[in-house]
Amino acid sequence: MSGAPWNTTETARLRLLAFAGLNLSEIANKMERSKTGVHVRAEKLNIAIAKSPHPKQRRMRLEIARVRLVELGLKVKSK
């Protein structure tokens, strides 16, 4: 069984969340997708997902990702 197909907006969001330093579980939760689905998509697109980034680096990258999402006109979900 497979999930819903990925669109370009979701792929962009995956890239930004991974850049922000979120781990697999956090990304899957924010995207409302399974960890397996996120992992397979990230692997297919060669997107590295952090295991446990430094907290300061993560906060900075997460803020940058939020700004980019807003710039792209994508919906930003709160914590």
Care to describe what's here?
The protein has 79 residues and is mostly helical. The protein has one domain. 59% of the residues lie in helices and 0% in strands. The protein has helices at 8-19, 24-31, 35-44, 55-71. Helix 1 packs antiparallel against helix 4 and helix 2 crosses helix 3 (35-44). The radius of gyration is 12 Å and the shape is globular. It starts with 7 loop residues before the first helix and ends in an 8-residue tail after the last helix.
The biggest sheet, with number of strands, parallel, antiparallel or mixed sense and barrel status, is: none
In terms of DSSP E residues, the strand content is under 5%
State the secondary-structure class: mainly alpha
The value of Rg in angstroms is 12 Å
Number of continuous helical runs: 4
Short synopsis of the structure:
The chain is built from 4 helices and no strands.
What key attributes describe this structure?
79 residues, 4 helices, mainly alpha, globular
